[in-house]
Write a structure and sequence with these properties.
This protein has 11 helices and 2 strands; from the N terminus they run αααααββαααααα. With 207 residues, it is mainly alpha-helical. A two-stranded antiparallel sheet has the order 1-2. It is elongated.
């Protein structure tokens, strides 16, 4: 791990803080640079094989910069105390977002195939369950949005395949083989149409 300069003395910190209040950019840089050791010290608490320490230091440095830019000596006695909270908040926020993204991306990881050879994703299993009372709160809005996307985003053929495949509009669910027979095209072509349609719906639904 890289080395950092020793912290400023209380007198030096007071001097540079006063210069900072007057808009001295050099004082700002010094306060940031000489408090990076604090960032490295805090980062050690979150050290793990899954986390890149240099990346965590960079994230913590963002919190330090925010602390220097927003520090009010009339409300806080020491910059280090205030900066430590800002650094920890920045690191924790980063880790929460990272875990959320990892969890969401895992929903789309294939976990097997169905009897027709199509990939099954974890999201398919989750969404097939009965929604809880809390999940039902947003279900109407999500359903309306999805039906709007069916009409506005998909082609006529894509829309027809998705409606039949998932039994939308209170219809029955058809297998890809059944849809292919009804539409007079190959099952593999139906599979491609369905896959492309679902990818487009996911993209617009997230937006």
């Amino acid at each position: 791990m890289r080395t950092f300069p020793k912290p400023l003395t209380a007198e030096e910190e007071k001097y540079y803080l006063s210069r900072l209040q007057e808009g001295d950019e050099k004082a700002r840089q010094i306060l940031i640079e000489y408090n990076l050791r604090l960032v490295a010290h805090i980062v050690k608490k979150y050290q793990s094989p899954e986390e890149d320490m240099e990346e965590l230091i960079s994230i913590g440095a963002v919190g330090l910069i925010k602390a220097v830019d927003t520090f009010n000596h009339e409300k806080a006695s020491k910059l280090a105390t205030y900066a430590a909270r800002c650094v920890e908040n920045e690191i924790l926020m980063y880790m929460r977002v990272k875990k959320k993204l990892q969890r969401e991306s895992s929903y789309y990881e294939p976990i097997g195939t169905d009897k027709e050879g199509n990939e099954i994703q974890l999201l398919d299993i989750i969404e097939s369950g009965e929604p809880t009372a809390m999940e039902q709160i947003g279900l109407k809005d999500d359903t309306k949005k999805m039906y709007d996307l069916l009409k506005n985003v998909l082609s006529e053929r894509e829309r027809q395949v998705v409606i039949m495949r998932y039994g939308l509009y209170y219809g029955r669910e058809y297998t890809q083989k059944e849809i292919a027979r009804k539409m007079g095209i190959s099952r593999s072509y139906i599979s491609r149409i369905e896959k492309n349609a679902l990818n487009r719906l996911r993209e617009y639904f997230r937006d």
